[in-house]
Amino acid sequence: MKALLYLLITQLKNRMLALKKKPALLILYIFIALMLFLVIFVSIMMEVESTQLNFADERVIYMILGGIGLLFLGTFITTGLSTGSTLFTMSDVGLLFVAPISSKKILLYGLVSTLGKTILASFFILYQIVNLKANFGYGLKEILALYLIYVIITIVGQLLSIATYIYSNGNTKRKKVIQTVLYFFAGIFLVTTLIIQRNQQVSLYETVLRIADSSWFGYVPVGGWAVMFFKGIVEGAIFDVLLSILCFTILSILFVVFLTRGTADYYEDVLHSTEITHQKLKAAKEGKKYSQRNRKVKVKDNEYGLQKGKGASAIAYKNILEMKRKSRLVYINGYTIIASIGAAIAGYNIKGEVIGAYTVLGALLYLQFFLTAFGPFKFELAKPYIYLIPEKSIKKLLAVSINSIIKPCIDGVIIFAVLTISGGCNPLTAIFLALAYAACCALFVGMTILYQRVLGAQPNMLAKAFVGIGLIAVFLGPSIISSVIVAAMLPDALLFLSSLPFTICCILFTIIIFLLCGNMLDKVEYSEK
User: Fold this and answer.
1) Element of type H or E holding 208
2) Position 48 in a domain
3) What's the pTM?
4) What total number of domains does the chain contain?
């Protein structure tokens, strides 16, 4: 056990020492810590009086918490039926699985290590302190309860996934039994919801709220236990809190006993899951798709080779060919269809409201930011052939980016045309909203290039997220403010021009980024990290 404790301490120490070589990441962690302290300080300074404020319906929190618990329950069981989960990394496999250490102690090491990672990864809940206090009147006690129950759900879910995989692996009958039981209880829950809605003559949303607040729901595994724990904390019901903890504890003990019982050896099954997880992470870092099965893909003869393009333009043709293999319509894919359906639904409900149309634009840009920042475009800038093409860096950069700029233009035309047809806005407003969408998406492409220039070849996801928030404030802040000022000055007949300043600012910022980062392919060394 001393060796495992030494390994945990050494890993933690090495990760902290590694920050000396990554000052940008160190600054990021300091920034995250300062923001957390700021949120806590603001929440302490807030004076919320329940007698003067009408707080939001507390059942909404119960519904969200119960929904997350049930979602995790179904997700982890489904994962366990296919690949399973793991508490280890490949380095743990190399160091521990071959060491003369008890399998029970190694499992305990995996639990402690995963618990630590989960505690750190769940910090995002604490950033909702101000929101929860202002809208629900919750204090530090309730927020810490939410944080704790989320950690417990995650750990128990991973144990459930491992146990499900070991129990059902290689046994088709057991898999079918588990799937049948899962679908059976899901069906019962759905039928119960519909019966309650019919008997009480309320909306479906109100029915779900009442179920989440009911006493019997607290006995539903994972999701119900989580709600019982949190309600016990809020209402001061110690028995409910203890009963919930007891349920989670008994379930966890049963899983651990199952994994370590008798001569059972979980190494082989966990090793398989660990290898799959490792390969998925590796593929994600390289911008590839991981597949367990090697499927034969039919490729037509006329799709071999680039056939077109010379120099830097060959990169653009290569990307077009890859997009064509995914969709014959090239620039139209599943996102285009789903966003268009969403725009049609929104247009039908907002019925020409100007604010509603701009809300649709904001929601689409919010989604597009993540699709661009975490999409395949970033991996193109790390491909070795880009550095070998004897062209100017700015030309190669434009060739890599061009398809990521053209697609939002086509998406914008289709989506806002659908919004107009469904009655969400008039044609003139739709044209300028489509221009604003395309210009802002081009700015997101420029921001991705800026990430690569500032943070390195493959930026850390967490670093990219926080740096992205800062860049959004720098670039989109002035753009939005300029449009708001112009909108306040324009007469009602010309309000469709409100988004024009936003569009112009986005285009200018994009041009500036490309000019400043145009030589990055001449200066940056290729790295696979």
Assistant:
1) helix 204-213
2) no
3) 0.59
4) 2
